[in-house]
Amino acid sequence: MLLLEAREATGITFSRNGISSLIVRLIRTRYALIKRLFDIALSFIALIISTPLILTLSVLVKLTSPGPVFYMQTRIGKEGKPFRIIKFRTMHVNAEDGIGPVWAKPEDPRVTKLGYYIRALHLDEIPQFINIIKGDMSFIGPRPERPFFVDSFKMQMQGYTNRLMVKPGLTGLAQVRLKYDETIDDVKKKLSYDRIYIKKMCLYLDFKISVWTMGKIASKLLKLFRTNRSGTGSDNFILTEGGISYGK
């Protein structure tokens, strides 16, 4: 059932026989190269365009809480290889000392005041363009997980390692089509979407996911604007990444 729902979410079906199948196979042979070229080109462009925002956020992070501007953490990439992901710091320094990796939650005391807004709009993920250029990640793919959670999910979900067949992404089908995770069942559902993406990955699907992502960000910007106008503050935002809602 989950696989069927995920297939319907992509809006894409391919014939297993005939000319259409042959075309798909030919495109797939070039897809990886084209995807990598797009990743590199778009990341450089994005970094150049976002330079003023990067500088502004760097100053604000430094002024509003003690500690480094950027936060680096080990994540698991393609074929299970670890890499260091780069993000703007949104939590207090040593926020997980004594508690270890935990799920994020609303009104999370580990998050700085500025971090509420940065995380709500996913601005903390801008430095990941560097990870994409380095080849650790892609624009589109499954969410990069922490080793602790990968080891845990491998024990609980059959086929979980299948999502490690491709590079993790800045955004992905599961991240934009499903809600934030609250239970292990939510994680299993996202896994089914990751598996469907890997099976049907193509430039058209990547384009659709990119459009969905921009729509999701625009929706959050509108929500932030309305929240500020109503004077309710930042506590209305769910403190999660664009994917599985684990603390960092």
Summary tags:
single chain; 248 residues; mainly alpha; two-stranded antiparallel ribbon; two-stranded parallel sheet
Structure, explained:
Residues 233-248 have low confidence and may be disordered. β1 (70-76) and β2 form a beta hairpin. The chain has one domain. It has helices spanning 2-10, 18-49, 51-64, 113-120, 128-134, 147-156, 173-177, 184-200, 203-230, and strands at 70-76, 82-88, 138-140, 169-171. The chain is mainly alpha-helical. It is globular, with a radius of gyration of 18 Å. It is 52% helix and 8% strand. It has a two-stranded antiparallel sheet with strand order 1-2. Strands 3-4 form a two-stranded parallel ribbon.
- Label the overall shape: globular
The strand line-up of the biggest sheet is 1-2
Q: Helix coverage percent of residues?
A: 40-55%
**Pairing-aware structural class of the strands and helices?**
mainly alpha
Overall mean pLDDT: 81
